[in-house]
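#structure-requests
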Amino acid sequence: MFMTTTYKGIKDGVIGYYCGFKPEGVEIIEEMPILNAEEGYTIIRKSDQEDVGNSVWLHDGDTQDNYTEVEYDESTD
C-alpha cells in the first residue's frame, strides 16, 4: 500500500479535486490523504473485513493501520 494526497481547491469560484499533484494558482481548501493498493491488490478494512476497493480516504482519525492489502481475486466479480 502507498499514500497519495488529493487536494481540494477553489479557483474562480469553482471547487476542484486534484489527485496526486498540488496545483498552482489554486486556493487549497483541504488536503486529503488517500491510501492506495498496489496493482493487482485490494484494501480490506480490518475491523469488519470489508473490501473497500483500491483506495480509501483516511479522515476522521482513520489510519493506514486499520487496513490490510490482499491480492485481488477476479473470480469474485
